[in-house]
Every structure is written in structure tokens, then in C-alpha cells.
Amino acid sequence: MELTAVAPIYLSPRPALPLPARRAARRPSFACRCSCSPDASTGASRRLFASFLAAAAAVGVGAPGGEAGAVSTSRRALRASKIPESEFTTLPNGLKYYDIKVGSGAEAVKGSRVAVHYVAKWKGITFMTSRQGLGVGGGTPYGFDVGNSERGNVLKGLDLGVEGMKVGGQRLIIVPPELAYGKKGVQEIPPNATIELDVELLSIKQSPFGTPVKIVEG
């Protein structure tokens, strides 16, 4: 199945990480258009602790290097299990990250409109992923504007964790409770839970000043 990247990002209700309950109603999300139809069933992808099938390769919308730059979820999970937490970089806000691969494209900064693939886990169990879907790549990339977490539009840990990444990069992020679901939790995620994100930055559609930027392609 051939996937075609196009410049516009359009509004779509999926696939988005669940937000803390008090802000869940305010979230918008964006998705990258491709030639294949997204999976019509949204209920299964939204149920926590569902058994998602890992895609064999990333969709590669705007990502450099084509297949060579794509890393399957299973391979990244294997590498993540071998990386001690002491090797992660810790930010002042408590977020920790480790770059599996540093991208060579444009850098995500506040105001950038980004498209990513992500896998979200709690205690090693996948509870949400953008990679679930039909086709070789699988899933629909999730898009958002960096810096929008203060408005309740995107999970803080994902928003802050993507900042500084470059297109084509892959990053593991350890998100403390205060940047995830806090003292209340959400659905089956308990209060004060630390979650892990496995993120791949696929493309950047807009600069922080509203000027379109070129998508870096392989």
C-alpha cells in the first residue's frame, strides 16, 4: 500500500492520548492525510490495556531516510529495556528522556505543528498507541501544536518531551505523574502513575512564527 504525504494537517478525533478528566473535553487533534483509510473502529484503540499489534515499520510521513530510518515498536521496546534510567537526561520539570536516534531534520520548538507516532506504556503495558491500524505502516500519526499543553489540548509529558526533537528522531520519555495524569489518574491508569512514551517525530508543518517550513524527506 502506497502512502502519500501531503502538506496540510487536518482535524481528526483520533488517535490521541487520553487527557486528565478535567480537561479531556477540550482537546483537538490533528492527523496527517495518507492514501489509505484509517481504521474505522476507534473504540478498541481507546480501551486501555488493549493488546495492540506493533507495526513492522513507521509510516514515514515527512521522515528522512525512508525504511532505513524507520524503527519498529518491538525493536525500540527491546532497546528501551536495556537502557538504564541513569542514562536518561533529566529536565528541571522532572521529565526524563533518552534519544534512541537524533533526527537530521527541522527542530520542534514552541509553536511548531508536529506529527508523531507514539506508544504509551504503564509498567511496561501498552495502553495507547498511534500505530494501531491497517497497512504496512499501521495507524494514523498524531498531530498537535507544541506548547499547547497549558491549554489542555495535549498531554503535558508528550508536549514537553517532543520539544527539542528533530524530524526523523526517536525518543524514549519517562513522564512523572504531575506531567501525566496526576493524583486522579484516568480510566485504568491509577493516581500518581509514572508512564513511558516511545515517540518518533515524523514531520514539522509550521514554524513558531506561522511560516510554513519544508518537510524534510529522505
Automatic annotation (TrEMBL):
Coiled coil: none annotated. Residues 111-205 form the PPIase FKBP-type domain. The keyword Isomerase applies. It comes from the Eukaryota. GO terms for cellular component: chloroplast thylakoid lumen. GO terms for molecular function: peptidyl-prolyl cis-trans isomerase activity. PANTHER family: PEPTIDYL-PROLYL CIS-TRANS ISOMERASE FKBP18, CHLOROPLASTIC, PEPTIDYLPROLYL ISOMERASE. This is peptidylprolyl isomerase. The lineage of its organism: Eukaryota, Viridiplantae, Streptophyta, Embryophyta, Tracheophyta.
